[in-house]
């Protein structure tokens, strides 16, 4: 057995123990860097490498060489090629080289009844032609555009999948995959891609019955969307949580929580664990999160780590809380001290792995030397 294979087994075991409810040998570490950071860090041009991904592997290798992580630290979630082919309005490449998600309205208010009757048909027939201009064409052209876009999508994902495999082998990363599936909370899906933040805020007051019916109607579709190709207890389906902190308590109770819990429960019933990015501050809803299936993985952006440990630590898997803002502005010692503080709070008894409070997207959002120092500190000083 090679040293890299042995290292990969050790790292995989850390996460296997974590998800089995056992205390691992040390606190596992998962650092997450977006492909935009990797391209910038390697000194390449964002506007070039994203359109011609020939050098993407080399940029990912630079991150793997320089930053400690037990899991693959780099990913390319969205590439611009297939969005360009589709004439996308919901994901648009900015002049700075970053793919932007502007406010969109894919579902008109008069479409609610059609959506409630059949979400899938409504999305195909009404929403997609609004969000993607090249699909608002005659049937033959639309079919050719979709075929070209899907071919570009499979080319991109096939290439990144190959790169991921190479890096996992070369650097001995663990085989746990927290992104084995992807979906959204039903209310978030209705907001993000269909109605938009402004419109949904009006809808919950003017047509609440239709909003409630819509999130209930789309829930089975979200469960299907979140299915992993090969369900495995040591992988997870990624679900970023967006709208809950912006809702009043009574609106959260009615529109957000019931369908979201049904989604997570539905995946669990199929043997699939959920990985939640708990965006913004969920502390007023912390008791709700305690109701989710045991072993749900939760990466927190903001909030009180002491309260989260108290309320969720015995049942769920916790990560996050480490502020990228401190990496940017603090001294090296301040950054290390913050890592120690979070480990002291969250690590006792297990159920915790170290990560930052969000994915590192741009090189100027962090101090590279501080980031390296924190990751190295945790890897060497967080043994049980």
TrEMBL record:
Molecular function per GO: uroporphyrinogen decarboxylase activity
Give every Uroporphyrinogen decarboxylase (URO-D) domain span. 180-378
An annotated GO BP: porphyrin-containing compound biosynthetic process
Supply the CDD domains for this chain. Answer: CmuA_CmuC_like
Identify this protein by name.
Answer: Uroporphyrinogen decarboxylase
């Amino acid at each position: 057995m090679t040293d890299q294979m042995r290292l990969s087994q050790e790292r995989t075991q850390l996460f296997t123990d974590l998800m089995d409810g056992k205390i691992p040998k040390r606190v596992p570490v998962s650092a997450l860097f977006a492909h935009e950071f990797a391209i910038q860090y390697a000194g390449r041009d964002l506007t070039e490498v994203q359109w011609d991904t020939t050098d993407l592997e080399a940029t990912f290798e630079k991150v793997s060489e320089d930053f400690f992580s037990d899991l693959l630290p780099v990913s390319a979630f969205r590439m611009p090629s297939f969005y360009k082919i589709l004439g996308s309005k919901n994901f648009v490449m900015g002049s700075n080289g970053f793919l932007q998600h502007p406010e969109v309205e894919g579902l008109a208010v008069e479409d609610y009844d059609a959506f409630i009757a059949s979400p899938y048909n409504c999305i195909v027939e009404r929403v997609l032609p609004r969000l993607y201009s090249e699909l608002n064409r005659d049937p033959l052209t639309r079919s050719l555009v979709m075929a070209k876009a899907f071919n570009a999508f499979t080319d991109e994902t096939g290439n990144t999948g190959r790169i991921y495999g190479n890096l996992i082998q070369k650097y001995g990363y663990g085989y746990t995959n927290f992104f084995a599936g992807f979906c959204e909370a039903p209310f978030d899906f209705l907001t993000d891609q269909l109605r938009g933040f402004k419109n949904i805020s009006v809808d919950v007051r003017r047509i609440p019955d239709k909003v409630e019916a819509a999130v209930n109607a789309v829930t089975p579709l979200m469960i299907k969307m979140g299915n992993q190709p090969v369900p495995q207890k040591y992988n997870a389906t990624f679900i970023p949580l967006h709208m809950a902190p912006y809702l009043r308590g009574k609106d959260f109770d009615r529109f957000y929580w019931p369908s979201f819990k049904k989604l997570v429960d539905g995946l669990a019933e199929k043997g699939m664990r959920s990985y939640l990015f708990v965006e913004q501050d969920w502390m007023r809803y912390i008791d709700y999160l305690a109701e989710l299936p045991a072993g749900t993985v939760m990466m927190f952006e903001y909030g009180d780590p002491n309260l989260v440990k108290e309320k969720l630590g015995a049942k769920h898997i916790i990560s996050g809380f480490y502020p990228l803002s401190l990496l940017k502005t603090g001294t090296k010692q301040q950054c290390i001290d913050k890592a120690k503080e979070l480990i002291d709070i969250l690590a006792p008894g297990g159920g915790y792995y170290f990560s930052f409070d969000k994915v590192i997207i741009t090189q100027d959002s962090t101090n590279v030397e501080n980031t390296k120092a924190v990751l190295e500190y945790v890897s060497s000083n967080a043994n049980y």
